[in-house]
Design brief:
Length: 171
C-alpha cells in the first residue's frame, strides 16, 4: 500500500524478516531443514518453537494471498488458524511492536471477510533474537477496523486526486 514509514527499518532487516518468515512457514509445513538456516536466525526459530509448544495451534492456511479488488487491496497473511480453538490471524514480526501492526491486521481481517472467512482474533507474534519464547500481542480495539478502512479510502483518494488536492481538503 505504500503507507508504512520505512525509516524505522533497513533493507537488511526487511530481508532478514523475510527469511525468518520462510523458516517459520517451513517449520509449520514440516519441511524445514534447520541445517540450511543461518546460525544468526536459529534463535528466532527457537523463539517461535517455544511459543508454539505453549498453545494449541491448528493451521488452516499459510502465506495466503488475499484480495479485495473493490477497494484495491491485496495482502499476504502469514497464518490463518485456530488458536486455542478460536479463528485467528497471526502476523509474524521479528522487530519491535509498532502501532501500525494492529491496522495491518485489521486489513487482513477485512480481506478474509471479503473472502468469506470468519476471524475472531488478530495477533502479532514477535519472535526474539535471544531465543526466548515469542510474545503474542492480541489486537482487540474494535476501532482499528474503521481506522484501517479510512486509511484505504485516503490512500485511494490520493491516488485518484493527487496529494495536493487531498492536503487542501484536510487543512
Amino acid at each position: 500500500m505504500g503507507m508504512i514509514d520505512d525509516t524505522f527499518f533497513s533493507e537488511h532487516s526487511a530481508q532478514k524478516g523475510s527469511v525468518i518468515h520462510k523458516a517459520i512457514e517451513y517449520e509449520l509445513r514440516g519441511t524445514l531443514a534447520i541445517a540450511t538456516l543461518h546460525p544468526d536466525l536459529v534463535p528466532y526459530l527457537e523463539s517461535f518453537r517455544l511459543w508454539r509448544g505453549s498453545v494449541r495451534l491448528e493451521v488452516l492456511a499459510l502465506e495466503m494471498e488475499l484480495k479485495d479488488e473493490s477497494i484495491g487491496l491485496i495482502g499476504h497473511l502469514d497464518i490463518f488458524c485456530k488458536l486455542n480453538g478460536f479463528p485467528s490471524i497471526i502476523d509474524i514480526k521479528s522487530g519491535v511492536p509498532m502501532e501500525w501492526h494492529r491496522l495491518q491486521l485489521s486489513l487482513y481481517k477485512h480481506l478474509l471477510h471479503a473472502n468469506q472467512k470468519i476471524v475472531m482474533y488478530r495477533h502479532s507474534l514477535h519472535v526474539h533474537r535471544t531465543g526466548s519464547r515469542a510474545t503474542l500481542i492480541t489486537h482487540s480495539d474494535r476501532n482499528d477496523d474503521a481506522y484501517a478502512m479510512h486509511l484505504i479510502g485516503a490512500y485511494n483518494a490520493r491516488k485518484i486526486y493527487g496529494p495536493k488536492e487531498i492536503e487542501c481538503q484536510l487543512k
